[in-house]
Predict the structure.
Amino acid sequence: MEKTVQLYEGKAKKVYATDDPNLVIVSYKDDATAFDGAKKGTIRGKGAVNNRMTNFLMRKLEAAGIPTHFVEELNDRETVVKKVQIVPLEVIVRNVSAGHFASRYGVEEGIAFDEPVLEFSYKNDDLHDPLLNTSHALALKLATKEEIATIKSMALKINDILKDFFAQCGVRLIDFKLEFGKTTDGQIVLADEISPDTCRFWDAKTNEKLDKDRFRRDLGNVEEAYEEMMRRVFGE
Ligand code: ADP
Ligand code: UDP
C-alpha cells in the first residue's frame, strides 16, 4: 500500500490518500501541542509510540467486538486505516477527576467516580471545541439519535476493556478522548488514536503521570513517560 496525495495535516498526524478510495494512511508526527494549540513542542519518538500503542489497543478492542478503522500497520509511524467521515464529536470518558473536569467544576484532581462520566465536545477548532450535550449534538445534526446511542454504548464498553487492560499494566486509566467515524457503508467505527496524547495514565502505585500532562505542565521526563507506557503495554 502506497501513499499518494496528502489529504490533511493535523497537529499530531498527517493523512494520505492511497490507490484504494476506501483506505487512507495516517502518519504520526513527533509534534505536540497543548492548550488549544497555544503551546507547541516536539516529543522525540512520540509518533512511533502513539502509532504502535494505538494499533495494539485497536486490535485488542476489535477482538472484544468493537469495530475500528484499523487495517494494517505499515511501519513505526504509518498505518493503513479505513477512510471514514469523522463524527465531529470528541467523546471523553472519565473515571477520575482531572484536567478540565477538575478546573470547570472546582474540584481537586484524583477523585475516583462511582460511575464513568461521559462527555462530548464539538470538534471544531474555530469554536475551541465547546462542551455540548446530546440534545445540542442532535440540534446541530452532528449525528443521528441512533448513532449517538451507538457511540455512547461503544465508548463505555471501550472504557471497561481499557481500564481492565491498563490495570494489568500497573496503570490507572484516568480519562481519555475517542473519535468515531462513519465508513462508506454507514457503519460507526472507532477512529483516530488511543495514546498518551489522548489519555491520562497514572502509575497505579505512585500516581506518577505517564502521559501528555508531563508536556502540558512542564513536569520533565516527557519522552521517558511515553517510553515507560510502551514498556508497560508491550511488556518489554
Ligand atoms: P487534529 O485534526 O485535531 O489536529 P490530528 O493531527 O490527529 O488531529 O489529525 C488527524 C486527523 O485525521 C483528525 O482530524 C482525525 O479526526 C482524522 N482521522 C482520524 N482517523 C481517520 C480516518 N479513519 N479517516 C479519516 N480521517 C481520520
Ligand atoms: N483530550 C484530547 N484531545 C482534546 C481534549 C482532550 O485527547 O482535544 C483528552 C485529554 O488528553 C484527556 C481527556 O481527553 O485525557 C480529558 O481532557 P480534558 O477535558 O480534561 O481537557 P485537557 O485538560 O486535556 O485540555
In short: Residues 85-221 form a domain with the D-amino Acid Aminotransferase; Chain A, domain 1 fold (CATH 3.30.470.20). Residues 8, 10-13, 15, 24, 69, 81-84, 86, 179, 181, 191-192 surround adenosine-5'-diphosphate (ligand 1) (CB under 6 Å). The chain has two domains: 6-82, 85-221. The radius of gyration is 17 Å.
